[in-house]
């Protein structure tokens, strides 16, 4: 039995701070006019979305939360949006946000693409029949959530088979999640079973006291994650090489995987991306009023990675444009329009 073969991350020679602000929950809108709310995780998602989405694309947002990415999809000028989340409250917030209903905290706007919202467990339920009329999608996005599927192999497989079944050939699967290599490396360097700094902590249970992980059972490795201003929640280690090979079984080929540090250096600090950054409002006005990441926030950013997969097969984007799409999409979503799906379906 092979043991403890998670790869170690390459040592990071990256600077200890950056001008972006970290909030991996990333569940609020990207407000172009408000420099002080600039947010690191949201920017990474914005860049990912902008780089891989094309005008009129149809988008499936797995674990969409409160719809924090809606404005990013609007900027990418998508043609149709389907969002699914397990949390009823979040889906309802997503609905009101989509409808442009005002609340105390946010400036609201209407979106120009039709949308559909579902509430259910997208790592348990077979979605291909449920979304038959909406599929195939050009883009599937799963931001800060794929690791919740990693409780068991069955759920991880369901997550990937849903993505694969719903994407068109050549379609793109983008996402962000914790970087298991970094977390395990930090755990091994720590004295006890806890790692962290002033902005986050991660705690493993006694079952991990050996700090060795059996390569033949890479699912269900639990830890508790605490980030400032967020609730503590259980999460699961996703060894990326297992994720990649499982994805391959479902015809999803890896295009890119990058730790957030690397992502920032490759996509967000290079002159050739300046125009994109400006378009996204990510740099503010002449770089004034920039939020700066503290060393601890920058270290917390190192806990995450972004990934891109491509569904195997000949791209038939032009063909799918004319398919009977958007039948279920609305420009204003009522409570009754939300489809609640349960595991029996
Ligand atoms: C950290 S939030 C990310 C929300 C959103 N994707 C974003 O980036 O702003 C994780 C989300 O995953 C959702 N989630 C967790 N497990 C899920 C499941 N099995 N099916 C659907 N959604 C799930 C949670 O309800 C929560 O909204």
Outline of this structure?
By secondary structure, the protein is of the alpha/beta class. About 30% of the residues lie in helices and about 20% in strands.
What is the chain-wise order of helices and strands?
Answer: HEHEHEHEHEHEEEEHEHHHEHE
Helix count, per DSSP?
A: 11
Overall shape: globular
**What assembly state would you assign to the polypeptide chains in this entry?**
single chain
User: What percent of residues are in strands?
Assistant: 15-25%
| Sequence stretches where pLDDT stays below 50 over 5 or more residues | 1-38, 283-290
**Strand arrangement across the biggest beta sheet:** 10-11-5-4-1-2-3-12
CATH architecture, by name, is 3-Layer(aba) Sandwich
CATH superfamily: Vaccinia Virus protein VP39
Rounded average pLDDT: 84
**Cα distance spanning the termini:** 38 Å
Predict the CATH topology: Rossmann fold
CATH class: Alpha Beta
Number of strands: 12
Bound molecules: S-adenosylmethionine
Task: Explain the overall architecture.
With 345 residues, this protein is α/β, with parallel strands linked by helices. It has a single domain (35-178, 238-340), classed as Vaccinia Virus protein VP39 (Rossmann fold, 3-Layer(aba) Sandwich), CATH 3.40.50. It is 28% helix and 21% strand. The strands form two sheets. Strands 10-11-5-4-1-2-3-12 form an eight-stranded mixed β-sheet, with helices on both faces. A four-stranded antiparallel β-sheet has the order 6-7-8-9, with helices on one face. A hairpin with a 3-residue loop joins strand 6 (194-196) and strand 7 (200-204). The two termini are 38 Å apart. The model is unreliable at 1-38 and 283-290 (pLDDT under 50). The structure holds S-adenosylmethionine.
